[in-house]
Amino acid sequence: MSSITLTKLSKSYGSSTVIDDLSLSIPEGEFLTLLGPSGCGKTTTLRSIAGLETPDAGQITIGEKVVTCMEQGTVLPPNRRGVGMVFQSYAIWPHLSVFDNVAYPLRRQRVSSKEIQHRVMATLENVGLDHAAHRSATLLSGGQQQRVALARAIVSKPDVLLFDEPLSNLDAQLRISMRDEIQRVRSQGNTTSVYVTHDQSEAFSLSDRVAIMLGGKIVQLDTPEAVMARPANLMVARFLGVENLLQGVVLRRDAGSALLDVPDLGATLTVKCRPGDANPGDRVTLGIRSASITVQSENAEPADESQYPDEPRNTVSGTVVQTTFLGEGAQYRVAVGASHVLARVWSNDSAPLPPNTRVRLSLPSHRITVFDR
Ligand SMILES: Nc1ncnc2c1ncn2[C@@H]1O[C@H](COP(=O)(O)OP(=O)(O)OP(=O)(O)O)[C@@H](O)[C@H]1O
Fold first, then answer.
1. I need a surface site. Which of 47, 55, 281, 366 has the fewest CB within 10 A?
2. Which CATH number does the domain housing residue 260 bear?
3. Ligand 1: residue whose CA is nearest its atom 20
């Protein structure tokens, strides 16, 4: 187990800056995910930690060891960094058996054959592949090949585990079982881990903290819950798929909340916000997820909202223009004022409301995020 520190890391290809003066500290034992859209520089950052890519500037420390320091010309090769890596493409050797694939890093370290036999079999057992030890690795399914890659990454008990989109080539079901496998293996050794993905659900389910990367920079570094609840800015909100983004103007400000005029909805809304987030006259953008909005037919009894006695519910009226049945619940596109609002209902307790139904939407104030325009 080692901490990882990146200091002022930069990398360009021609005129395109891929990592832009990036600094990041990952404490011992943490599972951190670099999450961002394609091309934002996640893989290049990960490969720089592994020693498979050389940055133009900056320093990387693993534990006490400076593994890259461009200012001093230090670049340790991958096999001297104490890292294990799992790639999207499995990267296992087709001409070797499962056993020999996993044994490979130990043989490079000149570990005795008795010890190799013991450690490889124990690791294969750990990932549920001991029965396949002597099969050719290429005869295994994609999911099993990725388990071989995971076993090979952990067999030498590295200080750090690096994962480059390891689930991308697997189908939905295998993805979940491999994700659980990574979580299990990781929690056994509590190895410091860096994981790269563009998939939010992977990032949120595995990580202690998530670093959102956009354009070669980390724009938000937080727990999964905090990233979901409070995207740092509008670009992060868009990347995370916050469906409803509305324009507003701040009318009034109290200690913990603000009253906003939202002409698109023809309504005023109260939102929770931090001091300094919104001042009277500010033009802002409001973000709210479809799943945070409650939908009710106007003919139904108003919902019991006593669980949030001090919470302004921001109720607005509208007309359903589109209903999409999602298997588990439904999504509604609702015309409110001059705008459309997306709302997601998770329950199948009653039949989905058909188009043209008049509805009440509740937009809980603590679920609305305010962004500078
Ligand atoms: N060897 C290279 N030569 C030129 N350009 C490169 C090279 N490697 C990466 N790039 C470019 O650098 C940018 C960042 O690549 P990187 O793979 O780090 O992004 P990413 O966020 O991991 O994206 P993805 O999820 O698509 O892999 C991309 O525009 C990519 O085309």
1. 281
2. 2.40.50.140
3. 39
Range of the domain at 88: 4-235
- Using the atom order of ligand 1, give the atom closest to the CA of residue 47: 18
Q: Which residue among 219, 235, 251 closes a domain?
A: 235
Instruction: Give tens-digit pLDDT for 275-298.
Output: 777 889 999 999 999 999 999 999
259 and 230 co-located in one domain: no
Question: Ligand 1: which residues within 6 Å by Cβ?
Answer: 13, 18, 36, 38-44, 198
CA distance readout (Å), 42 to 38, 131, 175: 8, 36, 20
Same domain, 25 and 141: yes
How far, CA to CA in Å, does 295 sit from each of 327, 331, 344? Answer: 17, 10, 8
Atom 18 (ligand 1): residue with closest C-alpha? 41
Rounded to an integer, what distance in angstroms lies between the CA atom of residue 66 and that of residue 269? 52
Segment 245-259 mean pLDDT: 92
C-alpha distances (whole Å) from 166 to each of 176, 181, 246 are 12, 12, 36
36-89 residue pLDDT tens: 999 999 999 999 999 999 999 999 999 999 999 999 999 999 989 999 999 888
Written as one letter, the residue type at 292 is: S
Condensed to tens digits (0 to 9), the pLDDT of residues 97-110 reads 999 999 999 998 89
- Local structure of 314: helix, strand or coil: coil
In the structure encoding, which two tokens stand for residue 80, read together? 């001297």
Q: Dmax of the chain from CA atoms?
A: 76
**How many CA atoms lie less than 13 Å away from 200 in the CB half-sphere?**
12
Q: Which of 208, 235, 262 is the last residue of a domain?
A: 235
- Rounded to two decimals, the ipTM of the complex is 0.96
Tell me, yes or no, whether 77 and 200 share the same domain. Answer: yes
Q: What is the pLDDT of residue 262?
A: 96
Instruction: Provide, for the chain, the percentages of residues in helix, strand and coil under a 3-state DSSP scheme, each rounded to the nearest 5.
Output: 25, 35, 35
- Residue 198 alpha carbon, nearest atom of ligand 1: 25
Which residue has a Cα nearest atom 10 of ligand 1? 13
- CATH of residue 77's domain is 3.40.50.300
Mean pLDDT of 29-38: 96
Atom of ligand 1 lying closest to residue 44 CA: 18
